[in-house]
Amino acid sequence: MTRVPVHGVFTRLDGSPDTGTIIVTTSRKPIQVEGEVISGPQAFPIQSDGIVTFELPVSDDPVNGEAWTYNLRGDLAQGTWVLNGLAIPVGTTEVDLANPPSGVQRMYPTRQEWEKLIGPVVDGAVDAADRAESAREEAEATIVAQGDWTGTIDLTALAVRPNYLTATLTGDVTLTLPTPGPERAFTVTLDLAQDSTGSRTLSLPGVASAWATPIVPHPDPASRTIIHLMWTGTTWVGMVAATNIGIPSEGGV
Question: Which domain of life is it from (predicted)?
């Protein structure tokens, strides 16, 4: 009966040699090979360099009756390796466990090895989720109530993201806006209400507008005006989005 050399190299996820034992069983028992009866598991230790070598009889020699297959299990430091249904036909010169001629092999990592394997994937997913959440927050404008405005209002500390500011004009107002540079464009929306006196003015130094027309809040007492200010990367551009806002009476056109 011909015996065939079997060899394999087992490494951990970090590339270092693995340790453990390869347990070999057969699909039928007992098997008599050249006068030797094989009736139980055979154990072959993996060496310190991760290499294991041993010999197994061919599994389809008619001298030994019905053919059989081998089932191999590696009890390793990194988990459990399994190769089921390995046939070694007559004429086989060697079996490399990295590329066996038959059978189905699987690897079941330990929890620690599995965490090493999927850890970078999970970390990447968390980073992507954080970036997506940050992008969502940057895309949304939070309404910030400014209270009463009069005199010079300094907005240079505004975040470079959409801003929606509500305020009541209780006096004439001059706005100071940030100049964040050419890398980002963003908007600032002003939702302004006149106080009970009305006719409060708004000055926007350095803000361009269509036909260079001044941007003027509606003067009526308690009237409401919405103004969009857009930073283009080089300059501020403003426009009145709605003025003297009110809800039409039912049926109005």
Answer: Bacteria
